[in-house]
Design a protein that fits this description.
Structural class: alpha/beta
Family: Belongs to the UPF0246 family.
Shape: globular
Protein name: UPF0246 protein E9531_10210
InterPro entries: YaaA
GO biological process, one term: response to hydroperoxide
Largest sheet: 8 strands, mixed
Mean pLDDT: 96
Organism: Lampropedia puyangensis
Helix content: 25-40%
Number of helices: 10
Order of helices and strands: EHHHEHHHEEEHEHHEEHEE
Radius of gyration: 18 Å
Amino acid sequence: MLFLLSPAKSLDYETPIDPSLASTEPAFIEQAHVLMQALKQQTPSQLAALMGISDKLATLNVERNHAWSPRFTPDNSRQAVMAFNGDVYEGLQAGTLDDVALDWAQHHLVILSGLYGALRPLDLLQPYRLEMGTRFPVGKAENLYQYWREPLSAYLLQRLQAQAAPVIVNLASNEYFKAVDTKRLKARVIECVFQDEKAGQYKIISFLAKRARGLMARFAIEQRIEHPDALLGFSSEGYRFDEQASTADQLVFKRKESDRV
């Protein structure tokens, strides 16, 4: 089984990490380099318009783009799972996983990325901002979906062939999962849906659902999950599997308002 996650916009390169932590290089450095060469042509005002971000953020990311190098070192990068710092990664809490758990994650977890295509947890990551949904034409590709669909799908197909069960558990957002050609993979795709009770009704609350995706990824890592049925036991932070609301390939987990911390 492969578990897919989205990246995070927020990055953390300040919190100390174990200097002996293993690291690997991303699979698509060449493709990322092509994208970054194009990004380096963008001025702060152009980048602000392209990404819909503030002038301050645009200036920061122009600086990041010009500092980016196809050579990854401990000085200019850190492991992806330690660098991403959004709601998903607050749920995952990768910094508290031991080496054995991280090694399992390395073989079962894939982080989709607008710049890097696909990242393993321990792949080195240089600071960047490029969301998959950005309408950024490069070469013959009109957007990042076209740019990544073939290499990303081929990569996931290869990774699936090394798994005991050819199953993808999608914990990524629609924005990122749209880059995957699921027909080419010919694999079972399981979606996990997380709903929280609010005013007596269950609904998807974005930041809580993102955190829950990270919690599910951590659950899978800690339990070394290799079969879809084991996902039903997920109960982190008060979530429970709802069989009646679920289908075979869409697993719904609900949490009562009283169980939310």
